[in-house]
Write a structure and sequence with these properties.
15 helices; 312 residues; 1% strand; two-stranded antiparallel sheet; globular; single chain
């Protein structure tokens, strides 16, 4: 990985480890529709003038179906699911469950035709990662620490996060990054306007602390507008497969913030599931030779992280 790639990787990894903490703070004063709407509205207002000035919006509008698909997978569904789930689970657990993104991406890529995704070690990673989720959910649910439905919501968000970069890499690689992000946020803003405006006035009147407002402002400006620009640059620099590995940095940041500042507990399920998920995700996200069989020659396809097959 180049120095530029490493910088982008660490920057996005750290920044996108903080939303779980700030969502928890925002939930002290706002509901899910309000948080998502304010977040994307801020991002749209910041990026729209820049996108217009740089003439990046028109190319994105020409590819609006794929931009819509990206927006739904990366923002509309995941942000709602994560925010709603964090009303019942800790921010550190939310961050851990998002580490399933790499092996979900590997599974999707394999289903799309890349035979290297079905290498035995990749399959082992998928099994370990899935076992980690099952162990975490089973142990903590049995002990009464978590409910299953919020965990299912987080897995749904992880699926969106796994698929969206693939869409961006294959269908929007020639479209200006700024245009894609800006149009995506504008679309999400429109989708959430009516649900948010139905509850937001009452929530603003009931606020007793500026903390939720500051948290939502951070989510909109830093983790949305700024971070997405860096994330697209990261995809172009190291590919969508490697880019999903930022989830390893995400979970560390989310864990530290949750335990230190929100006094979130370390459960047995977390301690058992964490290493399985991380190891499984690492194994599943590595690019390997195309596996044929023990009796046939294995074809080498290059070293590095899993990528997207050219024919897709």
């Amino acid at each position: 990985m180049s120095a530029r790639g490493l910088f982008l990787f660490l920057f996005v990894g750290v920044v996108w480890g903080t939303p779980y903490f700030f969502i928890a703070l925002a939930l002290e004063g706002f509901s899910t529709p309000s948080i998502v709407w304010i977040r994307v509205l801020i991002g749209t207002l910041v990026l729209l003038p820049i996108a217009i000035f740089r003439k990046a919006l028109r190319p994105a509008l020409k590819s609006w179906p794929w931009v819509l698909a990206f927006a739904v997978g990366e923002m509309v569904i995941p942000w709602a699911l994560i925010t709603e789930a964090e009303q019942s689970i800790s921010s550190s657990l939310a961050g851990l469950l998002i580490t399933t993104v790499p092996f979900i991406a590997a599974l999707v890529i394999g289903l799309m035709g890349d035979r290297s995704a079905w290498h035995p070690m990749t399959l082992l990673g998928l099994v370990l990662g899935f076992s980690g989720v099952v162990a975490l959910v089973g142990i903590d649910a049995f002990a009464g620490h978590i409910a299953v439905i919020p965990v299912v919501m987080m897995i749904g968000a992880a699926i969106g996060y796994a698929v969206a970069p693939i869409v961006a890499d294959r269908k929007l690689s020639d479209v200006p990054t700024l245009g894609v992000i800006t149009l995506s946020m504008a679309i999400v803003t429109v989708i959430y306007t009516i649900p948010a405006l139905g509850v937001l006035p009452g929530e603003l009147e009931a606020l007793t602390s500026p903390t939720p407002l500051i948290a939502v402002g951070y989510l909109g400006l830093v983790t949305s507008a700024i971070a997405f620009i860096f994330f697209f640059a990261l995809i172009k620099e190291i590919g969508p497969g490697q880019a999903t590995l930022i989830t390893y940095v995400n979970v560390v940041v989310a864990f530290i913030l949750g335990v230190i500042f929100l006094n979130e507990p370390l459960t047995t399920g977390f301690m058992v599931g964490f290493p399985l998920i991380v190891v499984g995700s690492y194994l599943a996200s590595q690019r390997r030779g195309v596996y044929v069989s023990k009796k046939k020659r294995q074809v080498s396809v290059a070293t590095g992280e899993i990528g997207i097959p050219d024919q897709l």
